[in-house]
């Protein structure tokens, strides 16, 4: 079809102008999401005075340095593209309070990102990050930070201690503090199956086996400690209360 090719869909200035919307907060948003764009459309520089820009869910592999022309931007959504790097010019967008870079192919972050001192929400989830700069801790206005589904093995203390941070999502990273602990071995012998038959119906071999298991059960009963002198609260019997004192008896019951 006309307008489509290896470069993805071509956006004309007319299409871009028709894509400007007024958001609930009164800001003008240029919404070019889900347009099949593979190359940053230079024609939108004519609309560089918008406060919000949505280029999410496209096929962008690169954001050029001309992004610096959008000095009024407070909200920038680039999630679900194919970005493997960010331009240094990203650090010139000093009015940004929201930046979504989720679901891309970022491996490193430019130091210039830490110049966005007004950022409140930063989403870096679903990328290929192995480290994040400690200088990210200079973004002291951050209230939400998404780092989930990356390859991070450490989160800098400067980031953890951000003064206004309310939400920090680091799920599904190979972080040592989230390593799964091995399940404790249960030393209590448990009965997997129980069959009820009369003694007269058992053959000699089965009867001998049953008598041996019964003797083992009696030994366990002899090892069960006697009643505790501690107060008992039947309605609150849990592994964290009185059952802790009589754990063997509690398990048997």
UniProtKB/TrEMBL annotation:
Keyword Repeat in annotation: yes
Alphabetized UniProt keyword annotations: Leucine-rich repeat, Repeat
Pfam family, one: LRR_1
Keyword presence, Heme: no
PROSITE patterns assigned: LRR
Stretches that traverse the bilayer: none
Chain segments carrying region Disordered: 219-253
InterPro entries for this protein: Leu-rich_rpt (IPR001611), Leu-rich_rpt_typical-subtyp (IPR003591), LRR_dom_sf (IPR032675), LRR_domain-containing (IPR050216)
Listed name of the protein: LRC18 protein
One GO cellular component term noted in the UniProt record for this chain: cytoplasm
Organism: Platysteira castanea
PANTHER family in alphabetical order: LEUCINE-RICH REPEAT-CONTAINING PROTEIN 18-LIKE, PTHR48051
Entry superkingdom: Eukaryota
Biased composition (Polar residues): 226-244
